[in-house]
Target: Sugar ABC transporter permease
Amino acid sequence: MTIASSSPPSRLPAGGASEPRSKPRTRRTEVGETRGDGRLAAVFIAPALLGFLVFLLWPTLRGIYLSFTRFNLLTPAKWVGLDNYVRMVNDPIFWDSMKVTVAYVVINIGVQTVSALAIAVLLQRLTQSAMLRGIVLTPYLMSNVVAGLVWLWILDTQLGIGNEIISALGADRIPFLADETWAIPTIALINVWRHVGYTALLLFAGLQAIPNDMYEAARVDGASEWRMFWRITMPLLRPVLAVVLIMTVIGSFQVFDTVAVTTAGGPANATNVLQYYIYGSAFGRFQFGYASAMSVALLVVLSAITVLQYRLTRAGRTDLG
Model:
């Protein structure tokens, strides 16, 4: 006769070994991992943060302070209050430089944005060849100084190959960089040539984020390429286009090196953009206080334009669901 065991049936698996229980994560472990991630993030951020503090924040604060002083490197800075700003408001050369800079920005931004958008759409709709994208980006790999010198030689009135071609076609030679009417448009187009490829690739990346299903549905409904561009491409590309416009406007207001190597502000101050005037005041006439005041004014103008652009273009919102 067998005696039944009073113990409950075993719940062990077939292999006879008990399953290991996972230890619950304690709050202390999670906090420790968070602190470790924070330290690692701080290590990676530190070089960029140090560069920001040393090369951007400190010079900006120093420049704001110097804008209220009279300083020429040879003597200690002397506090003069708002004298530099009063002088700036009454300086006709400052306002002329601002007008020249605005003219350059309008030409540069208008031509560059339209050209870059056309190139980006063609790259997306016709071909996505990596080699072609590399060719488009090639001028951007050249520095502004080199690009300026190359075009200075090409457009030289007497010996430049550009004017040689114009002369061979029977037209009069054009003093592109020596005439007050032609100088600023020429400098703007030189910078368009250099930067348009980079801007086009930024817009091309934005176009890649637009789903192809929308274009296919529009084709089924009989929409033309032109209609799809205005009804699909432009609305969905708006956030990327807004950021690109903000970047290019800020960069255009800071034009300096192309002017310095081609016209040096001439002829007759026709290309004396604001950055070049600030440079001449600081390092040509050693009026660092006045140059700092104009730099602060430019900073305020760019900040206002950036905020206005951001709000008008709704750069922080997208129409993609």
